[in-house]
Amino acid sequence: MDKNHLKTSLELPCGAVLKNRLVKSAMTERVSNNKLEPNEKHHRLYKQWAATGAGLLITGNVIVDKTHLESAGNIYVGDERILPKMKAWAAAAKTEDNHVWVQISHAGRQTNKFCMMRPKAPSEVKLRQLGLFGKPKAMTEEDIQEVIKGFAKAAKICKEAGFTGVQIHAAHGYLLSQFLSPHTNLRTDRWGGSLENRSRLLMTIIQEIRQAVGPEFPIGVKLNSSDFQRGGFTEDESLEVIKMLNGKIDLLEISGGTYEKLVFFEMNEAQEKANAPIKESTRKREAYFLDFSQKVRAVSQLPLLITGGFRSFDFCNQALANNELDLVGMARPFITNLDQIADFLDNKIPKLENLVLRTGIKSFDSAAEGGFYARQIIRLAKGKKARLKMGALWSSNFLIYHEFTKAMKNRLSS
Ligand SMILES: Cc1cc2nc3c(=O)[nH]c(=O)nc-3n(C[C@H](O)[C@H](O)[C@H](O)COP(=O)(O)O)c2cc1C
């Protein structure tokens, strides 16, 4: 195929235009200062990511409630005092005529104990993960109203700072995904029970953000295709929510899983077994969530971004040519293959080779993967090169060490 579909532009429903079809998907940076603000480390990271040529960069989780961080190194956007620092970050990230959207989020029960012993969530359903997460308290009506205001205010500040869009994080088991899932939302009021009730928080937040930012500012939503858990949010429910999103947002990103089932890291395993030319059986493996796209296309005209596993130029180009999706999202290659992405976009590099970390103990592998990439992002943020040879076992403990020490530093400086 001659045409390079990755390099075609895309106009979103709000009128904003993305210069091409490659998106750097959200990756939590963990490098805020001790006041949870952006700083020169973010500038360095985003300058490098803008230089890859990707049309859209989506930031990692930026939090709307400082007591519910996803990482002690998150940025918290709660009031206008942060504007100058947000402006400097947006300016550093937009150097190549690219878009930069802020992923706004609330961690709910996935706030770790170093940040909060008893986080708030839809219901008191505890996360089962190494004892790192406290039993949540069920949110009151007042708490829910605060969350809605928090998202709308954060979006407004991001717009004022010069970011070119926001993405509402409703996937991966964070607060909005907790509300959507019958596994974590046991409420019997208007915020729980039927799917209409469970999706009310997401839909209300979209409405309030639209009011705050106006019709021309892009609003995206990251949604799970499913939680991949018994009793959790299902594909059918996801499709119903997508129908509700029709006409209300500018971009839908599909992902999947929660902290209890981190499917996007497990994809590597499927890819390891699939080092063959692209054929039908392999296609499914390269991009984990692409199967779901047909079903999404049947119920929605929303511009569609899919992230997870995309690595080969031909595969991405063909999926775009087939209209299976509108935008290709990648995360880990923006760390380990940073210097190759510009050439990949020009079809000069056929594949961004994946690095696969294995500890030898299966239950540690997701932690090793998470720790390894977290360490690399921190290196890039400090102006160092990624170091690909790092022990898997130490990587598997890195996140606990990092989160504990960063939370202590934040506390001591407050
Ligand atoms: C280090 C790291 C941090 C991540 N942080 C976030 C995040 O803040 N928000 C989010 O929605 N997804 C996050 N993800 C998931 C990615 O956006 C993406 O969905 C996943 O890595 C699969 O894509 P890939 O196969 O191209 O890496 C993170 C992934 C990694 C590796």
How is this structure best described in words?
- The structure is a single chain.
- The chain is α/β, with parallel strands linked by helices and 414 residues long.
- The protein has a single domain, classed as Alpha-Beta Barrel (TIM Barrel), CATH 3.20.20.
- The chain contains 15 helices and 13 strands.
- The strands form 3 sheets. Strands 3-4-6-9-10-11-12-13 form an 8-stranded parallel beta barrel, surrounded by 5 helices. Strands 1-2 form a two-stranded antiparallel ribbon. Strands 7-8 form a two-stranded parallel sheet.
- Strand 1 and strand 2 (17-18) form a beta hairpin.
- Helix 1 packs across helix 14 (365-381), helix 7 packs across helix 10 and helix 14 (365-381) crosses helix 15.
- The longest helix has 22 residues, at 392-413.
- Mean pLDDT is 91; it is low at 270-279.
- Flavin mononucleotide (FMN) binds at residues 25-28, 60-61, 103, 169, 172, 222, 255, 264, 267, 307-309, 330-332, 373-374, 377.
